[in-house]
Amino acid sequence: MVMIFMNGVLIQKTGKTSKTGLKFKPKRGWKSIWMKKLLLTFICCVYMFWNAASIPSFASEKPETPKTGHFSVGIGWEILNYSEHEPDTSLDSVAEVSSWTVGLDAFKQWTNIFCGFKGIIPVHRVDDSEEWRVSDILTQQNSLEYGWTRIDAFLGYRLKPFFNPYIGLRWSESEQERTGFVVLGTPVEGSATEEVTAWFINLGIRGDILLNPLWRLYYSGSYFEAISSKVENTNLPEWKVTDTDGYAFEFEGRAEYACTENISVVFTLYGGQMHWKGSDWAPISGNLVKWPENDTLYFGSMLNIRWLF
């Protein structure tokens, strides 16, 4: 019996397998010229707004209408540590990949009611090596690209500056692309792409504290429970997993510096974990197929320009 782990899907099959030469996809890293230009443009914008500040304060010397909303856009870097575990076959895999991201954020408050949305979109994925082991024995290696897009919308009630509960929804789409397979030491041609789309319900708290007229700190903590999901794989068009159990949690901290009355710069750090229980074994074209239990530990940073209104 031969086990092949094609893009997160475990396939058990009998018989001979055809193995041909291996073509590894080269690392792309920083050679993307347009990404360099995007980063340079963003840094120049931050520098311009910073030097344009004539009165750097959240509150000016004369009474002003309080700012109750904002919109921000930023660029960031995200690390995804992905692993799979299948106790039936003593299978474990691990990979650490990264990507450049773009972040969007909007917020509005009316007295005690507030709402908002935020999104993180990967714009340049950096691939890395993934290893698969059965009973601690290396059985497969391949190259992995992993990009995760998510958009959150929420509605909450302001109790105190530092404690404000909210509820919301998250739409999530993760895409994993694998190439350059080496199975039991033998190169194997091929590629596979897996997509996981899901809806989560979101419960969380957030708050902020004003340190001085220039600096303000924010925090938030969220728990996400999957209410709908779908898993598809390009190598198995007739196979699909729906509504498997999953959850996620996330913590975020931000520091905001006032450049002008209406413009600020925000630095964000965030991290969390997404977990999927996986699927049961299913017969597909004479083989048994399963989506293993898996986890994504993630950490990211982002620099935003924020417009207050």
Descriptive report:
This protein is mainly beta. It has a single domain, classed as Beta Barrel (Lipocalin), CATH 2.40.128.90. Helices cover 6% and strands 67% of the residues. It contains one helix and 16 strands. The protein has one helix at residues 33-51; strands at residues 2-6, 9-13, 69-86, 91-110, 113-126, 128-134, 137-157, 164-183, 186-210, 215-233, 240-242, 246-258, 263-276, 282-284, 287-290, 293-308. Strands 3, 4, 5, 6, 7, 8, 9, 10, 11, 12, 13 and 16 form a twelve-stranded antiparallel sheet that branches. A four-stranded antiparallel sheet has the order 1-2-15-14, with no helix packed on it. β7 and β8 (164-183) form a beta hairpin. It is elongated, with a radius of gyration of 23 Å. Mean pLDDT is 85; it is low at 14-32 and 52-64.
Question: How would you concisely characterize the structure shown here?
Answer:
This protein has 309 residues and is mainly beta.
**Shape call:** elongated
Beta-strand residue fraction: over 45%
SS elements, strand count? 16
Please report the distance between the alpha carbons of the first and last residues: 64 Å
The string of secondary-structure elements, in order, is: EEHEEEEEEEEEEEEEE
Structural class: mainly beta
CATH superfamily heading? OMPT-like
Mean pLDDT across every amino acid position: 85
Distinct helical segment count: 1
Largest sheet: 12 strands, antiparallel
Q: Helicity range of the residues?
A: under 10%
CATH architecture annotation: Beta Barrel
* CATH fold annotation: Lipocalin
Detail the poorly predicted runs: 14-32, 52-64
Roughly how many Å is the radius of gyration? 23 Å
Q: Tell me, what is the CATH class?
A: Mainly Beta
Number of domains: 1
